[in-house]
Amino acid sequence: MTTPKPPERRVYLLDTSVLIHDPTALFRFEEHDICLAMAVLEELDAAKEGLSEVARNARQVSRFLDALLAGHAPGELAEGVPLGAGGPGDPAGLLRFETSPGGGDAAILAAAQQLRERLPEQTPVLVSKDINLRIRAQVAGIAAEDYESDRAIDDVDLLPTGVDPLPAEAWAAATAEGQGWRVERPAGAPWRVNQCLYTADGFEGVVRSADGFEGVVRSADAEAVHLEPVSDYRHRRSVWGVRARNLEQNFALNLLMDPEIDLVSLIGPAGTGKTLLTLAAGLAQTLDEGRYREIIATRATVALGEEIGYLPGTEEEKMTPWMGALMDNLEVLTAPGAGAASDWARAASADLLHSRVRIRSLSFMRGRTFLEKFVILDEAQNLTAKQMKALITRAGPGTKMVCLGNIGQIDTPYLTEATSGLTYVVDRLKDWPHSGHVTLRRGERSRLADYASEAL
After folding, report:
1. What CATH number should be reported for the domain whose range is 242-455?
2. DSSP code string of 316-369
3. pLDDT band at 202 (very low <50, low <70, confident <90, very high)
4. What is the pLDDT of residues 257-290, one digit of tens each?
5. CATH annotation of 10-145
């Protein structure tokens, strides 16, 4: 019997982009060693000033390094410093440093070459979020990888859409139960609470519309789910004068109007109605029903957390240029004669924007707590998982969070569909009974926009 060969021990050379993206990357490589080039330390030092997310992460990395080096004499650093305390789950590798002179990417590549010569028994691998640096490394014969420990999901195609068809055989065997129906769970069906299900075939005696039955799961176990019919916001009802134009929009409005759901995520390309539906639901529940005290709207700017002092005016005035989509939809919803749901709405003017709808910057969200607020996080695909956690944990009692975005249009450097904070939230909260998600697929702007999206 042959003894299994132990796994190859590697040494990972981390680029500055990795540490800025995730300061805890130092502890994510299990039994393998970590190496930092002097150029990386210099770049971290240059990035530490300010209140941006980059500066905060740079300072956090410095604190981690200071704690790891505490108690070690300078002469001991050449042999490496243990990354963990030896406990269960702690990293078993060493922290090493490469002191080759120079700066920038060239110095990092030179450090990788020297590391290969100094530690021939270990395979050096450059880890970077910078695609061009990885290409240069591979051209130079150095193994290079993207940092993937922060991936929320391996394949975005596996991300739940929140809306699934109801198999005809399962619906045919459904039995009445309370205000809804008990439906046996088909083998492998990932149905969970607040899952939206529909059938085009209907069911004798309970067909709700020409489009068939539409319902949302209210409770679920291993054998069956309890399915309740949703409100019809396409033909029978409206929200602040807005009617759903398709199946997915109807489900989205039901989740947005449900007081038992504290977090709603809507993913979809431009023109699918994410912002309009959310604002309509927010206005109806804030101004008509009094469920929330005000609407808070924010979004990730291109600089993603950088200070916005370059623009004149107050915080709200500085953020206004970034909130064009929200302002456009507010004009539609508050225009006189727009068919709104109440006399107050029909008479609403620009004062509404300042009285109950507040625009806030991400730069000033730390330390805040939102009480009884309807919070809209627009362009959430441009936020990291850490930023999304920091924002959602601002929610206090009676607050509803709505995350909007298009994971196919990410503008933040080093973020991908699989590592976006929006993807992270959808995946991690999918089984929580007070969250709901809908992926919107069909554009509803105009026939010109629909045709242009296909033809151009």
Report:
1. 3.40.50.300
2. HHHHGGGGHHHHHHHHHHHSTTS--SSHHHHT--THHHHHTEEE--GGG-TT--
3. very low
4. 999 999 999 999 888 889 889 989 998 999 889 9
5. 3.40.50.1010
Instruction: Using the predicted structure, report yes or no on whether residue 172 has a pLDDT greater than 60.
Output: yes
Helices (H), 217-291: 247-257, 274-283
The average pLDDT across 142-150 equals 88
Spans of all domains in the chain: 10-145, 242-455
Cα gap 183→170, rounded to integer Å: 6
| 405: nearest Cα among 380, 377, 442, 429 | 380
Q: Name the amino acid, one letter, at 147.
A: Y
Burial of 259 (0-12, 13-18, 19+ CB in 10 A): exposed
Whether 64 and 126 have beta carbons less than 8 Å apart is answered as: no
**pLDDT for residue 354:** 61
CA distance 36 to 112: 10
Beta bridge pairs of residue 196: 163, 216
3-state secondary structure of 370: strand
Residues 114, 140: Cα–Cα separation, whole Å: 13
Distance CA 111, CA 115 (A): 6
Length of the chain equals 456
pLDDT on residue 410: 87
Instruction: Give 103-120 pLDDT, tens digit per residue.
Output: 888 999 999 988 888 888
Fill in the amino acid letter for 157: D
Q: What is the dihedral of CA 315, 369, 287, 251, to 10 degrees?
A: 110
Q: What pTM did the predictor assign?
A: 0.80
Q: Tell me, what's the pLDDT at 282?
A: 92
